Amino acid sequence: MPNRLDRVRRQLAEHDANALLISNLPNIRWACGFTGSNGLLLVDPDEAIFVTDGRYTEQARQEVEGAEVLIAKEGLVSRLLDAGQLEGMDRVVFQADHVTVSRYQKLEEHCPEITWIPASGLLTRQVAVKEDREILQIRRAQAVTEAVFDHILDVLEPGKSEREIAAEIIYDHLRRGAEKMAFDPIVASGPNGARPHARPTDRTLQEGDLVVIDMGCILDGYASDMTRTVALGEPSAAAREGYDVVRRAQKQAIEHARAGLTGKELDALARDCIEEAGMKEFFSHGLGHGIGLEVHEWPRASYSVEDELPAGVCVTIEPGVYVPEEEYGVRIEDIVVLRSDGVDNLTSVSKELIIQ
Ligand code: ZN
Ligand code: ZN
Fold first, then answer.
1. In terms of domains, do 123 and 135 share one?
2. Relative to the alpha carbon of 226, which ligand is closest?
3. Considering the entire predicted model, what is its pTM?
4. Residue 2's pLDDT band (cuts 50, 70, 90)
5. CA-CA distance, 269 to 273, in Å (whole number)?
6. Are both 211 and 68 inside the same structural domain?
């Protein structure tokens, strides 16, 4: 953990600043280990100060590494000010995408002598490159999701509603030790599958449906995320063809993915394959996203992203086609770690079409 604070400190020179004020909780967890729901981390060249409220007095003392802990009775910013932590500073960087307007106004009002420098995406690149132990934690979260998937196959049948299946997904994740869901699970059957971000409805599953199941949990802070599309009985010829196209596109992307590609190039590995099959207009989202302490992290693997993807990032590979006129959707999603010569796939569930 302390060496992560050193990586945070490198941002000081980049912004010619006296300190960085970290307010995004997953970043705080990454930098100093605190897992609670309220805190601020101030990092300067010599020290780091973590401030939280009285609910977390014990927890902060146990968890926080490399930073001095302050407990606030009023606001977190007020506590930093009272402790004189911002005195003598003239340039402090804050996370523009994780500070409310009211907190920003408070900083300006109480420290008019400081130039507050907004930085977007501060720490995203540092956080994106995973250490081996972090990859292990994602694998562990993914293992829970895979066990849930096995269980869901036992209960997935015509007559059950999407909502019932979603409830089972949540219950079974928690039963198997997940802290919480990483996002609301998607169970999208038949025509509902043609909406990429469908919410589970009361629709009952029908014989012949394709069912898109997208789910992930948080275990020890790290996220899992997996999509599989399952057929209930023999699907239509169009739906089966759609499945095969997505399967091929996903395989192609995983076989050729590696660090050093741009987000756009990675996306194109799958998109070209879907385009060749004449289904380009049905693949209506990017190929994937970074994942770690947050389920959606930098980098995105998408047609508009020119960022080069470094070795050691975990990204999802999740092509899909959504075809309302044929009343089906298909998505297949794995998590991979990008390496200089390929990928390690963290997902082990088969991608052959499962016909229930
Ligand atoms: Zn997903
Ligand atoms: Zn995803």
1. no
2. 1
3. 0.94
4. low
5. 7
6. no
**Tens of pLDDT along 78-87?**
999 999 999 9
CB 216 within 8 A of CB 182: yes
Q: Are residues 334 and 187 in the same domain?
A: yes
Q: CA–CA separation, 105 vs 270, rounded Å?
A: 45
Distance 171 CA to ligand 1 centre (A): 18
Cα of 296 to ligand 2 centre, how many Å?
A: 7
Instruction: Tell me the ligand closest to 215's alpha carbon.
Output: 1
What's the rounded Cα separation, in Å, for the pair 165 and 208? 17
- Cα 276 to ligand 2 centre (Å): 24
Measure 314 CA to ligand 1 centroid, in angstroms.
13
- Residue 215 CA to ligand 1 centre (angstroms): 6
Q: Tell me, in angstroms, the distance from the centre of ligand 1 to residue 138's CA.
A: 14
Alpha-carbon distance of 261 to 20, in angstroms, equals 31
Distance from Cα 216 to the centre of ligand 1, integer Å: 7
Question: Which residue segment(s) compose the domain that 228 sits in?
Answer: 129-355
Domain boundary among 127, 146, 163: 127
CA–centroid distance, residue 167 to ligand 2 (Å): 19
Whether residue 198 is found in the same domain as residue 98: no
Compute the distance between CA of residue 119 and CA of residue 88 in angstroms, rounded to an integer. 21
- Helical H segments across the chain, by residue range: 2-15, 25-32, 57-63, 76-82, 101-110, 124-128, 132-155, 162-175, 237-256, 263-276
How many residues can be counted in the chain? 356
Q: What's the rounded Cα separation, in Å, for the pair 63 and 12?
A: 25
Ligand 2 centroid vs 209 CA: distance in angstroms? 22
Ligand nearest to the CA of 286: 2
- pLDDT tens-place string over residues 274-288: 999 999 999 999 999
Say if residue 163 is in the same domain as residue 190. Answer: yes
CA of 34 to the centre of ligand 2 (A): 25
Q: Is the peptide bond before 299 cis (omega within 30 degrees of 0)?
A: yes
Cα(346) to centroid(ligand 2), Å: 13
What mean pLDDT, rounded, does the chain reach? 96
Whether 262 and 247 share a structural domain: yes
* pLDDT, average across residues 50-78: 96
How many angstroms is it from 334 CA to the middle of ligand 1? 8
